[in-house]
Write a structure and sequence with these properties.
Blueprint lengths: L1 H73 L4 H15 L6 H13 L5 H17 L4 H15 L6 H14 L4 H17 L4 H13 L4 H21 L4 H8 L3 H10 L1 H17 L4 H7 L5 H12 L1 H17 L2 H10 L2 H42 L2 H44 L1 H46 L1 H7 L3 H6 L3 E2 L12 E2 L8 H11 L8
Antiparallel strand pairs: 1-2
Length: 537
């Protein structure tokens, strides 16, 4: 009882020692493991972050390069001028909420429409960007319409900002939009250029007409036709001009002179007079009939504009002021760019500009990598057998990855398993010792049986060898002359070298019907009867 108690104390002490050792090892290993894990995660994270950042830099640089390629296609500049223009676009993107790519798109359109020179393209791009940011005109629509309008009106491109100020001011103060004003202005720009109207006057007419609901697709063409007809009457001195002069409250000569000096002002006088006819109770429709204004669309546009002739006067006065001050667009843009949304876009543009600076230095290395990969792919295409081998290797590698993955997981769990096994060993030590003792006893018994079997087999083999030797000793001439292979004869069941209790030790028992003690007679009998079995020389 006392010995059992002492054994229990010893076992408990052993368990305590093991647990303390395991705890100490686990603590040290855990600290090392944590440190290694932290370092691995940090290095891996840095590597992944670096690759992601590099890819981001290259993507932005490639996007900038692709966008500016459009400008290179449509603009004729030297390489130094292209670089200056590119930097101008980058600087603009840091000041206004328009990306470098969008600015490049505007610059490309400018080149297509004949805008030339770094300064002109930069100014045109900035103006169109401001308009697209402050009006309902898209950048592409504004760039196309403004450039074409400038070409039709023979307007210097460096005055594009003034035209933008006129459009914005008119759009802010009349019942129309900037897109409608520009659309109507484009419709009547041909007639306006023929009548030597200013760019602002044409846009004012566009604002007045669109404000009374005249659509550019219908009324614009009709009004243009009326302007051209009156201009033709003035040029030819037609008698039909008298009716227009009377409506305007002027003589034919005075009206003709006024039209030549200021066609817009003379036409405005005509519409004011037509409005007074209506106000005075006159028959406006009959007046239009006398003037041969019978076409439905033209008559509708004339009636609408004459009924609101004050709008035309206000628009013409406003355009003149807006052209001179040239600040409406700038003020509108400043308000728009001051919003939180715009500032966020500008900040993003600044980041992209920085990423482009970094990425453009990585592009050459990236292109080299692409070239190498392209060469490898081309080489593989020329060697289909190797390609098939590569595919097979990939498949095998994938399979191995599937097989190795559980092993790696098990390896990762090894520290915890070692700790668990250590505790389990300490707790189950008595049971384990008993099991080991029983297993050892069983193994000893099995080993004894195996040794006995081997000893019996050896005895049997020794007896066979003795019989063979005795046969050879008694019959040396037979073995030498006949060359009988005793092993084959014995193994094939032809002779029996084992002997038996009924025969003397020098007697060979031949399986079959032949028995005897004379080796020569027996050999001859077997040679003739079993020639195919016993090998004779």
């Amino acid at each position: 009882m006392v010995s059992g108690f002492l054994a229990g104390l010893a076992g408990g002490a052993g368990i305590t020692i093991v647990i303390q050792a395991v705890d100490k090892f686990s603590g040290v290993f855990a600290n090392v493991n944590k440190a290694m894990l932290g370092a691995g995660v940090a290095v891996g994270a840095l590597g992944i972050a670096g690759l992601a950042a590099s890819k981001s830099f290259v993507d932005v640089a490639a996007s900038f390069e692709s966008a500016f390629t459009g400008v290179r296609k449509t603009v004729d500049l030297t390489e130094a001028e292209f670089e200056k223009l590119r930097l101008n676009f980058k600087d603009l993107s840091k000041e206004i909420p328009v990306t470098f790519q969008q600015l490049s798109s505007i610059g490309e359109i400018a080149g297509q429409l004949g805008v030339e020179g770094v300064d002109n393209i930069t100014k045109f791009t900035k103006t169109i960007a401001d308009i697209s940011a402050t009006t309902n005109l898209t950048a592409e629509q504004a760039a196309t319409d403004f450039a074409r309008f400038a070409n039709i009106m023979n307007m210097p491109i460096d005055q594009i900002d003034r035209l933008g100020s006129v459009v914005v001011d008119l759009g802010n103060n009349f019942a129309t939009s900037e897109a409608e004003i520009v659309s109507m202005g484009m419709r009547i720009s041909g007639a306006g250029a023929a009548l030597e109207m200013s760019e602002g006057q044409v846009m004012a007419w566009g604002a007045a007409l669109s404000s009374v609901g005249v659509k550019a697709e219908m009324g614009g063409t009709a009004i243009s036709k009326l302007m051209i007809n009156i201009s033709s009457m003035v040029s030819t001195g037609s008698e039909d001009l008298e009716g227009f002069a009377q409506v305007a409250g002027m003589t034919t000569d005075a009206f003709s002179k006024a039209f030549k000096e200021d066609a817009s002002g003379a036409l405005q006088t005509f519409f004011v007079g037509l409005g007074k006819v209506k106000e005075g109770g006159g028959d406006v429709l009959q007046t239009l009939e006398q003037l041969d204004i019978k076409e439905v669309r033209l008559r509708d546009a004339v009636l609408r504009l004459s009924g609101s002739h004050e709008i035309l006067g206000e628009a013409l006065a406003m355009q003149n002021k807006s052209w001179e001050t040239n600040n409406a667009l700038a003020k509108e843009a400043a308000l728009r760019y001051g919003t939180t949304e715009s500032q966020v876009i500008i900040l993003k543009n600044k980041f992209n500009s920085l990423r482009e600076d970094m990425g453009k230095h990585l592009i050459p290395a990236f292109i080299t990598l692409i070239t190498v990969l392209g060469d490898v792919i081309g080489w593989l295409e020329k060697h289909p057998t190797l390609t098939k081998f590569a595919i097979g290797a990939l498949a095998i590698g994938s399979a191995l990855a599937v097989l190795v993955a559980p092993f790696l997981i098990l390896l990762a769990m090894l520290p915890a398993m070692i700790t668990g096994f250590g505790l389990l060993s300490a707790v189950t030590l008595p049971i384990t010792a008993t099991i080991v003792a029983i297993a050892a006893a069983i193994m000893l018994v099995v080993a004894g049986i195996i040794l006995f079997a081997k000893w019996m087999k050896k005895l049997k083999g020794d007896k066979e060898e003795d019989a063979k030797a005795e046969f050879a000793r008694m019959n040396p001439s037979l073995v030498a002359d006949r060359g009988i292979d005793l092993n084959d004869a014995n193994n094939n069941g032809i002779i029996n070298l084992n002997g038996s209790n009924n025969t003397p030790s020098n007697t060979i028992n031949l399986n079959g019907d032949i028995y005897g003690t004379d080796p020569d007679n027996m050999a001859d009998a077997f040679a003739s009867k079993m020639d195919n079995v016993i090998r004779l020389n």
